[in-house]
């Protein structure tokens, strides 16, 4: 058998297994796995001795090149996917936004153009639905057939993204028929808006009020309501960026009842807290994203949720805005600070550090959270999300003991600060392959912009 590339002697870690083997890659796919493959037949050989080999990370929640609050997120599909690759993420699912009055296809086409010729990793899209007359319902079916098998709905941001319960229920009922997954931003936007207006009237304009005006109860209420609507519609639901124990309790109760309810959290909710707003001047704006940072005790609850499978995925909600010029748009009014933070590059290292080195879960569970379950929930498995013969050769040679300190001075995201500045991680990628192509080699990008492929995803079929 002729291999293009051989990855030799690594400890292969999947969601299920840990074993030492060689991996032979041909035509972008894993062609063979065996204790010893003949190295003479391979064009190039990488030693993974003493290191782990894991399936490439899948980040199912990113916002590249996204217009928001009068500006645009600072990473496009080129810089964002390169930064993702540096961190061991080889596939991302971004959000195409349907604006009011538009067809869903308009959104899909617009975001396809943003990514084409730029992405260095593979990519797919969810479609954000903001307007759903009856004609659009059938369009949902058409998109599912074309590989856009998930839709995101908002229960927050009235007047911009928010949908009423009837519309959400109609979309979920359609998803129950066509196999789509509904991703939900769960916060009670109506109540939050009233609290925000009160705060502004009292002259409370500093960044920390973004967090203080979005109570955990608003997230828990909407999470519970989303679950109830999905249960009535007979559809699965995926709660995005779950940030607090109150909402986690709603997910846990639903799962205990056997409902197809899933949820993700993000590194910012695992590593940061409302205490990050205790910084001079306007710097708290660096931590303005939604849902907001919570009190520190929620962190341990979220880690426990990941360990016990009440949370199934860690994504980033990567939505970077530079501190200078972009975050500063809200200098006198926290509601004008573009919502979002950068994280696409450090997800794997942070989860490995806190989860595996922190003694909370195994390397297998780590792989499940950052790669396998995202692939399964969003119709990419087993092409992505595991190491098996026939799967895409999206591989990370992972050094589980190497330490690094996260800093804006050394990161590759196009943004002038890091939310995780100064945090020390243990566990980093050495080599990263996308479809058999080496894209990261010991801290150097050696891939090609535009080489990433659009992925058609299957309908949801359960875990
Ligand atoms: Zn988001």
Global shape: globular
Identify every distinct bound molecule in the structure, by name, code or SMILES: zinc ion
Please compute the radius of gyration using only Cα atoms. Answer: 21 Å
Give the rounded overall mean pLDDT. Answer: 97
Biggest sheet overview: 9 strands, mixed
Q: What name does CATH use for the topology of the largest domain?
A: TIM Barrel
| Helix percentage | 25-40%
Give the number of domains.
Answer: 2
The secondary structure category is alpha/beta
Estimate the strand proportion.
Answer: 15-25%
Using brief descriptors, characterize the structure shown.
single chain; 463 residues; alpha/beta; Urease, subunit C, domain 1; TIM Barrel; 2 domains; eight-stranded parallel β-sheet; 12 helices; 30% helix; globular; binds zinc ion
Please, could you describe this protein's structure?
- With 463 residues, this protein is an alpha/beta fold.
- The protein has two domains: 87 residues, Urease, subunit C, domain 1 (Roll); 322 residues, Metal-dependent hydrolases (TIM Barrel, Alpha-Beta Barrel).
- It is built from twelve helices and 19 strands.
- The strands form three sheets. Strands 1, 2, 3, 4, 5, 16, 17, 18 and 19 form a nine-stranded mixed β-sheet that branches.
- Helix 2 links the parallel strand 9 and strand 10.
- Helix 3 runs parallel beside helix 4, helix 4 crosses helix 7 and helix 7 runs parallel beside helix 8.
- The longest helix is centred in the middle third of the chain and has 18 residues.
- It is globular.
- The mean pLDDT is 97.
- Bound molecules: zinc ion.
